[in-house]
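Suppose you are handed a protein chain with no further information: no name, no annotation, nothing but its sequence. What can you learn? This example shows the usual starting point.
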Amino acid sequence: MVAVTRKFPRDAHGEDMSSLESIISVRGINKVYSGQVHALKDVDLDFPAGALTTLLGPSGCGKTTLLKIIAGLLEPNTGDVLVKGRKVTGPGPERAFVFQDFALMPWATVLRNVGFGLELRGVAEARRNEIARRYIEQVGLGGFEDKYPHELSGGMRQRVGLARALAVDADVLLLDEPFSAVDEQNRRKFQEDLLRLREIERKTFIFVTHSIEEAVYLSDRIVLLSRRPGRVSQIIAPQIDRSGTPDEIRRDRAYLDTVEEIWQGLRQFVD
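A reasonable first move is to predict its three-dimensional structure. Written in structure tokens, the prediction is:
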């Protein structure tokens, strides 16, 4: 039996999140893959609107599986996902997924890639290009609109994927280890960019990472999953003063204590 610990949640500004409406509810999710691999078991979660929630746990615990179920890209064996009270039966316009492997169209320019979701929705070319250019600028790729994916670095391709997700104006952005393919310097820069974009866009983010430090630095709430079959082990809301510089935050005692608390919560699942 996995004990579940829940802490009184506050957002990045220290505001009480307990009264925030849940935009996504996960109820009784079980997922068993062929070969009887039990990925998730009896997962119940609520995701507050406007919060950045991170899914964290050992390799193979079902983080990406849960993210794909929320996205409507994968069906659970039992249980439901509700978005604004409506049952998820597949992908929907209120959710956008940022894939770990970028999933860009190699034959399309940056501008076309970013605007592709809008193109599928029938948005007129002039309007979708206007929107796409705005988000290309926001992710720091102004001037690269006419480049192709093979002409970009891995980090730049990841920015294109993020801009594409933002461009469709979804309420919820689902990010599957979006910074895993970049070096530490770029990873920290992307973390800052994500926090800045979150302030601008006021979206709900659900984020998957293997990094405890990254989870603590970025998140309003951190959901710890047990080893497979993944179950909710603990929910932690970092109580961190985010008014300082990035280096000051990472040296802050509250930050370091939260990193240690999470490690203690996860070490039981590490062989």
